């Protein structure tokens, strides 16, 4: 077994990434305050060819050195838009036929392992503030909520970890093939 060098990984150039067909996933960051978390979400979104990231409310926007530190250039490859009001964005996306899912602990959540995405449906995944989660007003507008099961003493994941788990799970369930 030989560890591969970066030069052996056949990574896409940004201009080639922009031309690739994207996974029908949109990420919405609802008032995420940590710049490192924002950067990490960009980097994970790049890995799974996410269509777009929406940065809402107090969520910081690139360029910023602390976002760049963890994004490692993914703010250049992944399309993103700032929208002040998350609820307005969710309402608009739903009008466009996007199924909006909050990643949140609610009384009627679907456990991630029980969620079966339709590969032809576009989804928006809403990830919330590190302390307060997704705003209740936004949860109320969503089509459903997905919860990541947890079995230890803690009842939450870091937002960038949650984003990585959910993006990978949905990406893999869609059986996405990269040409």
Describe this structure in words.
With 179 residues, this protein is an alpha/beta fold. 34% of the residues lie in helices and 20% in strands. It has a seven-stranded parallel β-sheet.
Summarize the model shown.
By secondary structure, this protein is an alpha/beta fold. Helices cover 34% and strands 20% of the residues.
Q: How would the blueprint of this fold be written?
A:
Layout: H1 14-19, E1 23-30, H2 35-47, E2 50-56, H3 65-71, H4 74-77, E3 80-83, H5 86-95, E4 99-103, E5 110-111, E6 123-128, H6 136-141, E7 144-147, H7 159-173
Helix pairs in contact: 2-3, 2-7
- For the CA atoms, what is the radius of gyration? 16 Å
Report the uncertain regions.
none
Instruction: Output the CATH class name.
Output: Alpha Beta
What's the arrangement of strands in the largest beta sheet? 3-2-1-6-4-7-5
Percent in helix:
25-40%
Q: What is the number of domains?
A: 1
- What is the number of helices? 7
CATH topology: Alpha/beta knot
Query: How would you sum up the global shape?
Result: globular
Alpha carbon gap, first and last residue: 26 Å
Largest sheet: 7 strands, parallel
Looking at CATH, the homologous superfamily is SPOUT methyltransferase, trefoil knot domain
Q: Which strand-content bin applies to the residues?
A: 15-25%
> What is the averaged pLDDT score?
96
Search tags:
7-stranded parallel sheet; 34% helix; globular; 179 residues; alpha/beta; Alpha/beta knot
């Amino acid at each position: 077994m030989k560890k591969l060098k970066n030069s052996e990984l056949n990574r896409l150039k940004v201009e080639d990434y922009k031309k690739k067909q994207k996974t029908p996933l949109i990420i919405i960051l609802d008032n995420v305050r940590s710049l490192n978390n924002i950067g990490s979400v960009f980097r994970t979104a790049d890995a799974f060819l996410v269509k777009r990231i929406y940065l809402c409310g107090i969520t910081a926007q690139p360029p910023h050195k602390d976002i760049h530190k963890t994004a490692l250039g993914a703010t250049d490859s992944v399309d993103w838009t700032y929208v002040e009001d998350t609820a307005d964005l969710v309402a608009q996306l739903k009008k466009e036929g996007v199924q909006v899912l909050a990643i949140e602990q609610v009384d009627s959540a679907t456990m991630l392992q029980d969620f079966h995405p339709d590969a032809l449906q576009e989804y928006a995944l809403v990830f919330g503030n590190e302390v307060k989660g997704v705003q209740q007003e936004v949860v109320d507008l969503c089509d459903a909520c997905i919860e990541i099961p947890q079995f230890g003493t803690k009842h939450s994941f870091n937002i960038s970890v949650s984003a990585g788990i959910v993006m990978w799970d949905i990406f893999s369930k869609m059986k996405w093939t990269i040409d």
